[in-house]
Amino acid sequence: MNVTINDSCIGCGACESICDxxxxxxxxxxxxxxxxxxxxxxxxxxxxxxxxxxxxxx
Length: 58
Known about the structure:
By secondary structure, the chain is an alpha+beta fold. It has one domain (3-57): Alpha-Beta Plaits (2-Layer Sandwich). The protein contains 2 helices and 4 strands; from the N terminus they run E-H-E-E-H-E. The protein has helices at residues 14-18, 40-49, and strands spanning 3-5, 23-25, 29-31, 55-57. The strands form 2 sheets. Strands 1-4 form a two-stranded antiparallel sheet. The chain has a two-stranded antiparallel ribbon with strand order 2-3. A hairpin with a 3-residue loop joins strand 2 and strand 3. The chain is globular.
């Protein structure tokens, strides 16, 4: 699973609150790629919850 954050991120923190093992918000969300494996369910949940669809999952 490849997870990226596009430029539409507004830094709202929704992804971090759903899946803090993978997402960390500074000015915008940052993905801890090493933690994606094993957390695919919460990554997808965070992507679905993002209000601006900034999380791209492939």
